[in-house]
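Example 4.3 (complexes with small molecules)
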Amino acid sequence: MSDGQHSYYEFWKETVSRIKQTLPQQEYHTWFNRLSYLRSEKGKVILGGASQFILDTVITRYRDLLVNTLSELTGEEIGVEFEVASRDVLEMDSGTTAGEDAQAPQKVEVKRSVSAQKSARLRAESNLNPSYEFSSFVLGDNSAFAYNASLAIAKNPGVSYNPCLIYGGVGLGKTHLLSSIGNYILENTPELKVMYVTAEMFTNEFIESIGSQKTQHFKNKFRKVDVLLIDDIHFLQGKDSTQEELFHTFNNLYDAKKQMVFTCDRPISELKNITDRLSSRFERGLNVDLQPPNYETRMAILKKKLDARGSSMSEEILNYIATNVVTNVRDLESSLTKLVAYSELLNMEVSFDKAKELLGVLPAHAANANQTLSIDTIIKVVAQYFNISTFEIKGKKKNKSIVQPRQIAMYLARDITDFSTTEIGTEFGGRDHTTVMHSFDRIEALMKADEAFTNTVMKLKRDLTTIKS
Ligand code: ADP
Ligand code: MG
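Answer. The structure with magnesium ion bound is encoded below.
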């Protein structure tokens, strides 16, 4: 593609090939296969991406890298600009979509003529719970990535992120997002056949089909869908023949460019007893995580849920819930339900004291989790994870295999509990509070630099915050 004297096309190709060598393969494919050279102007290169979501991510993560590499190669200062470009324009530049396995776009022609009857049948067959929609999902920093990816998939199934995996702890909105994708597609692209199942349903149906000698029927059922949504795939751990069946279903749908989205309660790398070939399929596409919401998001969720019920509650009580229920959205909801039910039954407003009393007696309630989660428990969980003893964590040994777990445990104690750094230091074999602070900073820095390390710390944090008092 020549555009006169300022063409930086060759430099762009070289830039991409250099970046490819430095990034993990999956990361490269996720972002650079969706980015394309459009044209050059004096001192700048204009790149195109299929959606603003892709561009936003590329800009945040790679703009500096692109500018630096281009400038270094050309010996000039080169700026980079981004535009949302239609798929057709992007396809023309196959030289720089550059992906060996960039997928051909699936042309989705919306036929508005699908009859109401047929769409009702498709809805029924989809297994979807219609109450989960994007519009009722409250966005926060913890969920923006997963939400945007889900919406992009819903708008363009089979095109951009296939497969996609959404992972995160219990009650953080995985089922909500997964179902929202399905409901959105049913609504907007009604000729596509959408199927939602939990991994458990998939397993049970598969077993049943063997018993009744209808495996072919089972295979056909799952291989003829356009969009397959499977919830909670961690359920498949140790279930070898179901994994095998899913592996073949996956390959079939993948080759046919059908959209698949999965959810899991942890990153794929932490699953046990899953065959490598299946886990590599899950990891192939985009993997996005859901984290617990922060205080502001918790408040926003509470308010939205109250609104949806047409109820109200004092700011003081909402603040109390948002401050104390920190585990996940499901626990937030159940606290709210409890108070709303009480107030509706007695037809009176709940006082702050009454609210505290009611929430205090919720059986598996996590309101006190953070106060009651002892530093000892944190030490124990971390020690167990790293296969060392709690004495070693509290002790004085300085080998790396012990120092790092020790620092992680201090980090988590400071992050999750309300104990002061002095109190934490004391529990860690009488260390000074500055040691705790130093460890915290050190772990934070490591997390910024290393994604795998971050995953480990986050996994431990999830495990700890789901320990009920
Ligand atoms: P998971 O599948 O991750 O265990 P769910 O999707 O079942 O979690 O979510 C638990 C409950 O919390 C559901 O009622 C869901 O609607 C609600 N929920 C989760 N995340 C959000 C959110 N960000 N905004 C609004 N509601 C949410
Ligand atoms: Mg779920």
